[in-house]
Write a structure and sequence with these properties.
The protein is of the alpha/beta class and about 220 residues long. It contains 9 helices and 10 strands.
Length: about 220
């Protein structure tokens, strides 16, 4: 099946599978069952089997999945051999945390450069990532096509338009603003406040069902 025909929900779970399988490989495990995967990544076994089925026969009934084979498969599927460089826009508390973490520790994404307007940040290097003045954006971006927004919501739309004009194709938006982009640009919104409010709401109104509860029915 062509990857653009794989359900988006499945595509979003692929990096989760890859991370766990990579950890298993480091531990020296040779095979893993769908139940083990399910327990680790908190996705039910049926969903995992369905996700994997989009890619053909990845495992054998009664045997499970070969860890090395899965690792190689997902490495190619997720282009793990190709590093994607990212620009960070906004070096506040959250942006600085991203720079200290960076992404090369876990996968094939690397923050290459950062931009801010604060004089005390511009010209510095944080975790090997240079911080440029925001006025240098168009000059320094080069062929980077992915950006992370960690700036005030009031600046998000204007900055997005600058990024799109320069050739940015994907934006991970950590601002509360719902930015407007052309149809060919992909934006993923991550509003931490909204996610936390949703978590608290679900805790209050949708108690989790444990295995003991299921057995007692």
């Amino acid at each position: 099946m062509e990857q653009n025909k794989i359900p988006q929900a499945t595509a979003k779970r692929l990096p989760l599978y890859y991370r766990f399988i990579n950890n298993l490989n480091h531990q020296g495990k040779k095979r893993v069952s769908s139940k083990e995967l399910s327990d680790a990544v908190k996705v039910d076994s049926a969903t995992i089997r369905r996700d994997f089925s989009y890619f053909g026969a990845l495992g054998k009934k009664g045997y499970g999945y070969n860890v090395e084979y899965l690792l190689e498969f997902f490495r190619k599927t997720l282009d793990q051999d190709e590093v994607t460089e990212v620009a960070l826009i906004g070096v506040g508390n959250l942006g600085t945390a991203f720079l200290h973490y960076n992404f090369m520790k876990n996968n094939n994404i690397k923050i290459k450069m950062a931009f801010d307007s604060a004089p005390e940040k511009v010209g510095k290097t944080i975790s090997d990532v240079p911080v440029y003045h925001i006025d240098e954006l168009e000059h320094e971006l080069g062929d980077i096509h992915v950006a992370i927004l960690t700036i005030p919501a009031s600046e998000a739309q204007g900055m997005t338009e600058r990024l799109v004009e320069h050739g940015i194709e994907g934006i991970l938006n950590f601002t509360p603003a719902r930015i407007t982009v052309p149809k060919h640009i992909r934006v993923h919104h991550i509003d931490l406040a909204v996610e936390l409010q949703a978590l608290v709401y679900f805790l209050k109104h949708y108690p989790l069902v444990t295995e003991e509860d299921e057995e007692a029915k």
